[in-house]
Input
Amino acid sequence: QVQLAESGGGLVQAGGSLRLSCAASGSVVSDKAISWWRQAPGKQRELVAIISSGGNIDYAVSVKGRFTISRDNAKNTVYLQMNSLKPEDTAVYYCRALWAGHDSWGQGTQVTVSS
Output
């Protein structure tokens, strides 16, 4: 199993930046599809970005061009760099690992963007 721990959330003004980290333990991230999701109050959880084990990357349309997902295998960590933040980006952000029929989530980190 892999345990995931998100960090880096906080309060930021619109137009600002944050970098979220998803640190893995118990197993490596390099052979897994790691994704970032978010859930705003009263809304369904939605996929934000994903990096496959092969390094393929995709983003939600709403964040494309503003967010960047990356993976540091040496640190066993996946990052989400978020720039040009908007109030509608406010949510709890979760990372998720998928591999060989397994599915693991972190506990989430709150991101609040003020206008």
Observations:
- The chain has a mean pLDDT of 97.
- DSSP finds no helices and eleven strands in the chain.
